[in-house]
Amino acid sequence: MKRYLFILISLLLVGCGRNNKANVFKNIKKKTNELESYVMEGELSLYNGDDNYTYNVSVSYKKDDLYRVSLVNKVNNHEQIILRNEDGVYVLTPSLNKSFKFQSDWPYNNSQVYILERIISDIENDSDKSYEYKDDMHIFKTKVLYSTNNELTKQHVYFDKDYVLKKVEVYTDKDILAMQFNVNKYEENTRIDDNIFNLDSNIDINEDAKTSKTIEDVIYPMYLPTNTYLTSQDRVSKDNGERVILTFAGDKSFTLIEETVDVSKDLEMNLSYGEPDIVIDTIGSVTDYSINWMSNGVEYSLLSDNLDRDELISVAKSINSSSITK
Prior knowledge:
Blueprint (H helix, E strand, L loop, with lengths): L1 H17 L2 H13 L3 E12 L2 E12 L3 E8 L5 E7 L2 E6 L4 E5 L13 H10 L4 E5 L2 E7 L8 E9 L4 E8 L4 E12 L39 E11 L2 E10 L3 E7 L7 E5 L2 E5 L2 E5 L3 E6 L2 E6 L5 H9 L9
């Protein structure tokens, strides 16, 4: 009887051991490190107060730092692509034939909700991470690092019993859900043609794309720092379009530029010194002093030398189609 009891206890201990934090993460990390490639598709939801945005996301990864991430806005079908190849990091807007090259170590320098390697790194680097096995899911709760948004502080990461990523939830410091990525398809060690990581292969110019030559509705920030106010609004002409310059003065002065966007006949390359990040409903460039992004045929540039990055982001997030117009 004692012998059978000993065997039963041993089996229970072995079973529990398989699902302890250290063993589970060791297996997940080993599985990830051995990958030659993967393709992952899912749906990304962003929650910004009353404004929610949803994207279809497709990620292709090939060993030796090749990444391609396609994000398609489900409302307007607007696609942007983030590329990392041997030449650098790019953000492409295929419909406008425009490309931005970043001086960035993306995706390794910040948390990334849809990049498997970065998620693994977040789990590994958090000595205070928690773990539970619930409903056939391995769930890790860890800290995150989003240098472009300090409000984002933690995430819940879900792997299935085979250690395949299924869901990531990112929360603010007030425990409000800010981002959620649900994985719908995952294939590992699948054959991926190197060509999809080339810049030219990701531009498919649409000569029929419609862009406006005028800014019909000037969009104003719905959030202004205390003792900050609009002092001037200037509308100027430019080649094939126009530009509106809004100047805000006071304790936290800044400038907001809105200008029309052209469809380039040839691939247009721009250099950016910021970090690529999602701004409102699109991918933009964020620095300590500026945020640039394009949305609905308008390019926005928010610049200030006395707003900190968090304040810049707060102003930018308040500039959308529901903002006050005059």
